[in-house]
Amino acid sequence: MTVMTDLKRSPLHDLHALSGGKFIDFYGWQLPVQYTSIMDEHFSVRQAAGIFDISHMGQVLIEGAGAFDFIQNLITGDLHRTFDRGLGVYGHMCLPTGGVIDDVFVYGLKDSKRFLMIVNGATHEKDVAWLRKNVASGVIISDLEGRAGFAIQGPKALSIIKETIAGIAELPRFAFQQIQGGTPHESFWGCRTGYTGEEGAEFFGPARTITVLWKQLLENGAAHGLKPCGLGARDTLRLEAGYPLYGHELTEDRTPLEANMEWVVKWNKGAFIGREALEKQKQEGLKEQLLAYELLERGVPRQGAPIFKDGQAGGLTTSGTFSPSLQKGIGLAYAPISWNNAGSNLEVEVHKSRRASFLQKAKGDILMSNRRYTKSHEWIRVDGNIGTVGIADHAQKEVTDVVYVEMPKVGKTLKAGEEATTLESVKAAFSIYAPVAGTVAKVNNALEGDPGLINRSPYEDGWIFALEMANPADVNSLMTEAQYEEFVKSGAASAHN
User: Fold this and answer.
1) CATH of residue 311
2) Cα–Cα distance, 91 to 64 (Å, whole number)
3) Which of 94, 156, 437, 459 could form a disulfide with 224 if both were Cys (CB 3.0 to 4.6 A apart)?
4) Sheet holding 176-179, edge to edge
């Protein structure tokens, strides 16, 4: 039995205690699960801002002339493709079998020969051992000690950051800024990343520096509604956003493809550990894949809850909770790939009773929308530097039955607000505009044979095209879902054009 005195403590521990934090054992760390209540903290993040201690996450410095190529061989992400744009890299470290050792973020500049890798607290020691087992000549691995980290998240987070520290809030999503210290180990990093589906940033660095910054942000953010938040809200928030948790959705027995995260595998990058196994799995086809569901009846699904379709068992819940935003039970589960179609009716066993559920999003997409909207009723959903574009449900109802879509050409460069394409309905022809500047990276060819997908599934199967955005931060100027709903209710929105 582990007692609290045996657990590691965050450098921010005393601040949590003073704020009324209630502590639990989280993979050997004594961390706050909540301060007031999970619901209160959840809505603070969704409506204003919350700040989370993530000091349990490992901070590993990788240096040397061979460091870039060493990391490139270890993860599924492509450092060349991402670092060239000044962005951090999210990727999976895989076994030769394709199973996931951990999901990590890497920050750094190629020419600096110094990179920061952020690893999960639960896999910290295992990850460092894997790095050292595979270390290349000319590479130095330092498992940094005396460090701390936190995330500040929510629609008001960037404003609070801007009042406190320069340069971070202005960065595009996934970008980072390294603030130099006297030595490499004294530098701290501000990264435009997060784990809630909201805007914000994460900070990593020496414990003393991070503690001071935590205090400053809480003081400056009080007027904006900033609150300290615990692990409980962090879990409900990440599940609403459909984000995986290592040990649940990601394990050494599951591959990125099965986790419905093929987007983290950059096939054009060249060799990396696990590539051959993933290529074979992709060629042969998947048997199971992660899906996201919501309950139609009362109940809260938990890890291990069986999933049924047409009375047959076949799936297993990896994470489940009550969604404060949706006011219903939600979950992620591995199930036969044939079940993974948006709108499928499933059953989930909760307390030995089967509850009807609905496959809310196909292939594990987010449960809580991260869409932004234009006044001409386009929506854009951001994933890294790619923005998927379609028209809002309000617009498709006004244009009525869509009968034809003229697809933009892949490779076409568009300015924000420029006409990208047109669609025709039984009512009239309508223009679709680019929400932000970028280059057309992909089009939805399924619309050529079935344009009615725009009416039946405007936010999923009816997407129109995807943009490689010139600056992902541009989406911040667009309306959030709540703002768009108010815009529609105000009567300012009429026909799509």
Assistant:
1) 2.40.30.110
2) 21
3) 156
4) 176-179, 188-191, 200-206, 147-153, 49-53, 226-229
pLDDT in tens, 408-417: 999 999 999 9
Whether residue 185 lies inside any domain: the answer is: yes
What residues have CB less than 8 Å from 450, skipping those under 6 apart?
A: none
**Strand, coil or helix: 307:** strand
Residue 379 backbone dihedrals phi, psi, to 5 degrees: -115, 155
> For residue 457, is it within any domain?
yes
Q: Which of 330, 347, 364 is the last residue of a domain?
A: 364
Question: Strand (E) positions, 66-113?
Answer: 89-94, 100-109
pLDDT digits (tens, 9 = 90+) for 280-313: 999 999 999 999 888 888 899 999 999 999 889 9
Which of 208, 80, 94, 213 is closest to 150 using CA atoms? 213
DSSP designation for 33: E
**380 and 359 belong to one structural domain:** no
Residues 356 and 377 in one domain: no
In which domain, by residue range, is 331 found? 287-364
Count the domains in the chain.
3
Full-model pTM: 0.76
Choosing from 312, 338, 364, the residue where a domain stops is 364
Beta strands in 324-418 (DSSP E): 328-336, 345-350, 353-361, 371-373, 378-383, 386-391, 402-406, 413-414
